[in-house]
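User: Please fill in residues for this 337-position structure.
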């Protein structure tokens, strides 16, 4: 079976590493985005999380503008904005502003999770009792703000009205998969942390799909954790920073991204190791050859249309190099300056 070639994109949580600051995280984010653009990555998405000292991208729209302003051609967007945290009009205005500043380069990926804990959700003035069930109504309201001018409208998004800001639905379960299919929207699945639900969600999306003015056929992007290095051993060591981050999250102690360790043995308990390793079905840590081989297996299995890569590495230079190795493994075509 021949190799499949699909666009590869970047998912960035603007990690704040131990001993560093959000200001440094933003500088690193911009440097990575500029490298991703040169290497031929398709899009660069940032994620909304709150009350997490290790993630600096809470003001997601602001960081998107920072990255778009420091790059020239790569698409920049949200992976995603947690829509129930916001008034749809505010998001329409923010992304209408971004699209007006950087036309043809802005994506709006939307999720329905809080991206936070219950106390933080209350601080965001979110109606947590809805549990995201009002997401379809919020989405319809948001999409209406982007529609062309109508005389009957009394509330308008300026800027935003009449602009073509591509909307994606993001999910880690079947809810958004089915909704994206029914609305004919592109769908991105969070297989980088919910791999066990990937295949059912893809099937639900494709079986629910109805052609729309946006898409005439389904378009699926899958999330993957990939860490590249010169040896499998070094990649495995670098990947322990993300494993430590997962472990601390499971233990209810989220914090800054920790330096890698030589072994996780003695750090995690057997049941924690089993739980975390179950999250690694669509994760790769290794050399260019290992990444290329496993990536092809996953593409053949899922028939995904695009892959978005999260490479959570403590050392910034090693993180940049990881994305260089991934680009080589995926045969991305670099842009000349």
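Assistant: Residues filled in for all 337 positions:
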């Amino acid at each position: 079976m021949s190799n499949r070639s699909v666009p590869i994109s970047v998912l960035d949580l603007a990690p704040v590493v131990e001993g560093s600051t959000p200001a440094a995280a933003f500088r690193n984010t911009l440097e990575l985005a500029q490298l991703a653009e040169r290497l031929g990555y398709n899009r660069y998405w940032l994620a909304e999380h709150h009350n997490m000292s290790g993630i600096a991208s809470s003001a997601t729209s602001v960081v998107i503008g920072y990255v778009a302003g420091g790059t020239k051609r790569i698409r920049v967007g949200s992976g995603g904005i947690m829509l129930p945290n916001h008034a749809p009009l505010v998001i329409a205005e923010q992304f209408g502003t971004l699209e007006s500043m950087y036309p043809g380069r802005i994506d709006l990926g939307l999720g329905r999770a809080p991206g936070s804990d219950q106390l933080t959700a209350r601080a965001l003035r979110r109606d947590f009792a809805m549990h995201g069930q009002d997401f379809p109504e919020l989405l319809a309201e948001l999409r209406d703000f982007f529609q062309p001018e109508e005389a009957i409208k009394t509330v308008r998004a300026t800027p935003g009205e009449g602009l073509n800001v591509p909307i994606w639905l993001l999910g880690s379960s079947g809810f958004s998969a089915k909704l994206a299919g029914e609305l004919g929207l592109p769908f991105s699945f969070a297989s980088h942390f919910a791999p066990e639900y990937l295949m059912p969600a893809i099937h639900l999306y494709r079986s629910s799909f109805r052609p729309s003015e946006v898409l005439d056929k389904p378009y699926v992007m899958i999330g993957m954790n990939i860490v590249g290095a010169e040896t499998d051993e070094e990649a495995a060591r670098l990947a322990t920073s993300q494993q430590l981050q997962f472990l601390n999250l499971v233990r209810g102690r989220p914090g800054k991204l920790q330096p890698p360790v030589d072994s996780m043995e003695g750090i995690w308990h057997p049941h924690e190791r089993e739980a975390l390793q179950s999250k690694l079905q669509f994760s790769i840590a290794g050399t260019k050859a290992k990444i290329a081989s496993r990536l092809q297996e996953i593409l053949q299995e899922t028939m995904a249309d695009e892959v978005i890569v999260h490479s959570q590495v403590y050392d910034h230079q090693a993180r940049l190099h990881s994305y260089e190795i991934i680009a080589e493994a995926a045969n991305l075509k670099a842009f000349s300056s």
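For context: The two ends are 35 Å apart (CA to CA).
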